[in-house]
Structure formats: structure tokens, C-alpha cells
């Protein structure tokens, strides 16, 4: 039997709503059963398919949506549960993002180290001599130790090794960049022609036909639900909920819409330190507008460029990118980057310090152990910080769904939503029972977001993510004008 015959076939896969004839009310759960079948219509006997499940209002006046949660029974069948948050007609949308056979390819390719190509330049400022050599984000056994410039830091589980330049010392390292063309060529060589077909239609991001096709009516709750949810705390994640128009409504804790004045009061006398990739940089740039923040190059360092201060409310926001690997084609000064652990070790912390971390988008192409080990070191540094400054508040944000550049194969192989979801799961598992850290899980929000998938989501997503942060920082602050958008 060929790979093509074994692969999950969307047209043959059945997707059926269970107990479709019962009366559904707000607060109930809608359950869908998926049975994966191959090209010949045979039921699959193993799991691993990656689905995306959404529930949305069929009444245009409501504009609501939520994410479904998929359970893989490892035998070719899956259960999808949708909490019913609103009354009215609801429609189900389930997408086979990747069949299990494609997931196996993603997993195999992910675990191959050093498939992305990086270069660093070395510059002797006295003689102007320069040299550029290849660098690696994982150990490279084929490069003898005497030919290495090893910039790794074992205490933070960070690896960065460059081929030693011929006539320059390792200390002359200057700028580093990602070579996109060579990286993509490398990745494409890792998959066979038959495997490439798994990342094309009809196997890629294919909508499944749900039985029944018609919307299901949801009645108002039989018993009135409590109007006031508990405050958002470390063990009450705001991840579960739904979109109501352009506002994320948590079903677990009290996430409020903050006005400009409420944001200022919430962040008054606080320093917000943000470190991570460009998806969390969106937060600091948005705070520049909302607070607002000012940057003074005569008194502030580069971390304030995408943050700044508000002297009236004594608010400071600072942003720094995480350390390599970075998937950026422009050269970045190597010594401008610091590991998260080093920053956590250096911060004094305290009750007026808020720290937000997010590392995922530049790690989807790396072996999973790379980000896991980096997070282990970060977790230990957070614990040390909390011991010396117990009042410090630390948040770790997960990843989101993203766009995939018109279905180009290399983008799926290094940046598929399946890869991002695995990192989200690692983050959730690592900090699940840790009272020192609040996990801001934004995955469900992105799965059913009103806007388009994008690694840099629109303002609606960014604002709703920030409202979750503010609701954790100021859980007891009663905001006037709840429900209004930020002005």
C-alpha cells in the first residue's frame, strides 16, 4: 500500500454531531465525532491527524465564535467538544490542517538540527579586516573544536557556535543573520517528492463536511449564570472563552475591557519589562499608543525604543528581543542580545515590576528540546527571582496561529501551526502548576479570531491579549464603562 493510499482523506472522513436532536442550552457542550478514513474509505487505526475546530454564530447580528477542543483517541477516531457560550444558531467548522502522515514528516524534519543557515560577520575595528562564517544553533559534531568559536552559555541552555574565522579572533564577532534562500533549500531537501504531496490539496487545510450541515439552535440557559466571574489569578487562565464581536470574553475569570484611563491607573508606578519575539513586541508598541509612552534618547537605552516612559503616571515599559536563533535576514549586532535568564538574574524585581516573556515563533524550526531546555533555565531563573523579590509578577505568553505565505512548502515545514502548537503545549505543561508564573495562553483566541491568521495579528487580537494581562495585574480594580473599547 502506498503512502497516498494510507493518508487521511478529507472526503472520506466522517464528521458527525452526536445527540443532534436534543435541546441545547447555553452552558451545555456540543460533541462531534470524527472518524478518519483513507483513500479507499477504510477507517484509520492510528491517530495523529491535526485538526482546527471552530464554532461560530450563524446569526450575523451576534458575531460570536469559539474554539473546539480535540481529543485524539489514537485509533483513528477523535472527539471534539464545543462549549456553548451564546444562544442562537451555531455552525461548526472543522478543518483537517495536516493528516497524521504529514505530521510525521513535520516531526522528523523538526528534530534535524542546524537545517537553518546562519552567518555571523567578524570585524577587526583596528585593521578593518572582516570575515563571515557559518553559525549553528545546535552542537555541530562535524566541526572540530579548534575550528569553533563557541558562544554557548550552558547555564542558560543557550547554544551558538560559529566556524572560526581564518585570521580573526572569536571576540571580533559583529553581526549575525539568517540566510533565507539557503535555509529553504536545505529544508526542501529533507523531504521526498511523495512527502511533498502531503502538503498540497486535498490534504492541506481542508474543510470537512459536518453532519448535519444546518445550524444548530442553542436556547438561553435554563438557569441564570453568575454575572461576576472570579478575578484572574495564576491558576485561573483566561484562555477558555469566546469572541463576542471584537472582544474576548473569558469563561473562567473576569477579563475586562480597559479604557485608556483604566490602563494608566492599572500600570501606575509600575515597570513592565517585555522580552521575546516580534509577536510580543506588538504589545510594547501598542502600549506606546495606549498609555501613551515617550522615548528620550538622551536618558534612555535601546530597550526603551519600543517602549518608553509616562512621567505623569510613573509608568515605564521596556522591550528586548530574545537571544539567537533569530530568523531575520538583516544583520543583528550579536552583543545587543541577552538571554532571558541573564535579564531575570539582573532584575531587582519587586511588587511594581511586571515581566512578560514570549518565545516561540523563531523556535518552531528547531528541535523541540532546544526550546524546552531554554524554558527549563528560564523557569529556574523565575524561581530565583521570586525568592528574592516575591511580589514580582511574571507572565509567559504562548504562540498563536499564523499565515503560511500562499501554501509554500518550506513555510509549513518550519512554521506550521502544528509546530507552534507543540511549543504552546510545552509552555503550558512546564508552568501548569507553577504559582510563580501566569501562563497567558492565547492559542484558542487565535484559532477562532475574527480577523485573519497572521503571526502578527491585528489590533483586535493585540488589545484583547493586553486586556487579559491588565486583568491579571489589576484583578480587583473595578473599571468603569466596562464593555467600551479603549479610547
TrEMBL record:
InterPro entries: Ig-like_fold, Ig_E-set, NXPE4_C, NXPH/NXPE. Residues 248-474 form the NXPE C-terminal domain. SUPFAM superfamilies: E set domains. Signal peptide: none annotated. It comes from the Eukaryota. Belongs to the NXPE family. This is NXPE family member 3-like.
Amino acid at each position: 500500500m502506498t503512502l497516498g493510499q494510507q493518508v487521511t482523506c478529507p472526503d472520506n472522513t466522517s464528521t458527525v454531531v452526536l445527540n443532534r436532536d436534543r435541546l441545547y442550552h447555553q452552558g451545555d457542550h456540543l460533541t462531534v465525532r470524527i472518524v478518519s478514513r483513507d483513500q479507499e474509505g477504510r477507517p484509520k487505526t492510528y491517530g495523529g491527524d491535526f485538526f482546527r475546530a471552530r464554532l461560530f454564530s450563524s446569526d450575523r447580528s451576534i458575531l460570536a465564535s469559539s474554539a473546539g477542543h480535540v481529543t485524539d483517541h489514537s485509533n483513528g477516531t477523535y472527539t471534539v467538544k464545543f462549549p456553548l457560550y451564546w444562544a442562537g444558531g451555531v455552525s461548526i467548522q472543522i478543518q483537517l490542517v495536516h493528516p497524521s502522515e504529514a505530521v510525521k514528516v513535520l516531526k522528523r524534519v523538526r528534530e534535524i538540527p542546524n537545517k537553518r543557515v546562519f552567518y555571523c560577520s567578524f570585524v577587526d575595528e583596528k585593521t578593518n579586516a572582516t570575515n563571515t562564517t557559518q553559525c549553528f544553533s545546535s552542537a555541530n559534531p562535524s566541526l572540530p573544536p579548534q575550528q569553533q568559536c563557541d558562544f554557548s552559555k550552558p547555564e542558560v541552555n543557550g547554544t551558538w557556535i560559529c566556524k572560526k574565522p581564518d585570521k580573526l579572533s572569536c571576540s571580533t564577532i559583529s553581526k549575525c543573520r539568517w540566510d533565507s534562500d539557503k535555509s529553504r533549500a536545505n529544508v526542501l531537501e529533507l523531504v521526498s517528492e511523495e512527502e511533498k504531496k502531503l502538503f498540497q490539496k486535498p490534504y492541506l487545510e481542508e474543510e470537512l463536511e459536518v453532519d448535519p450541515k444546518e445550524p444548530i439552535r442553542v436556547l438561553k440557559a435554563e438557569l441564570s449564570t453568575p454575572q461576576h466571574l472570579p478575578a484572574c489569578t495564576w491558576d485561573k487562565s483566561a484562555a477558555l472563552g469566546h469572541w463576542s464581536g471584537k472582544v474576548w470574553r473569558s469563561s473562567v475569570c473576569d477579563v475586562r475591557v480597559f479604557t485608556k484611563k483604566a490602563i494608566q491607573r492599572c500600570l501606575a508606578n509600575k515597570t513592565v519589562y517585555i522580552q521575546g519575539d516580534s509577536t510580543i513586541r506588538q504589545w510594547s508598541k501598542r502600549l506606546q499608543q495606549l498609555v501613551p509612552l515617550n522615548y528620550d534618547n538622551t536618558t534612555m537605552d535601546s530597550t526603551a525604543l519600543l517602549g518608553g516612559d509616562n512621567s505623569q503616571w510613573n509608568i515605564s515599559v521596556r522591550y528586548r528581543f530574545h537571544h539567537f536563533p533569530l530568523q531575520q535576514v538583516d544583520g543583528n549586532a550579536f552583543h545587543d542580545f541577552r538571554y532571558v535568564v541573564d535579564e531575570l538574574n539582573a532584575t531587582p524585581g519587586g511588587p511594581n515590576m511586571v515581566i512578560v516573556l514570549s518565545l516561540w515563533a523563531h523556535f518552531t524550526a528547531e528541535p523541540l528540546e532546544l526550546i524546552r531546555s531554554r524554558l527549563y533555565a528560564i523557569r529556574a531563573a523565575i524561581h530565583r527571582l521570586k525568592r528574592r523579590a516575591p511580589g514580582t509578577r511574571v507572565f509567559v505568553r504562548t504562540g498563536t496561529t499564523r499565515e503560511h505565505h500562499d501554501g509554500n512548502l518550506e513555510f509549513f515545514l518550519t512554521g506550521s501551526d502544528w509546530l507552534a502548537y507543540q511549543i504552546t503545549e510545552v509552555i503550558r505543561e512546564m508552568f501548569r502548576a507553577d504559582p510563580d508564573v501566569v501562563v497567558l495562553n492565547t492559542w484558542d483566541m487565535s484559532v477562532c479570531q475574527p480577523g485573519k491568521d497572521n503571526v502578527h495579528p491585528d489590533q483586535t487580537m493585540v488589545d484583547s491579549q493586553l486586556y487579559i494581562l491588565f486583568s491579571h495585574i489589576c484583578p480587583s480594580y473595578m473599571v468603569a464603562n466596562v464593555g467600551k473599547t479603549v479610547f
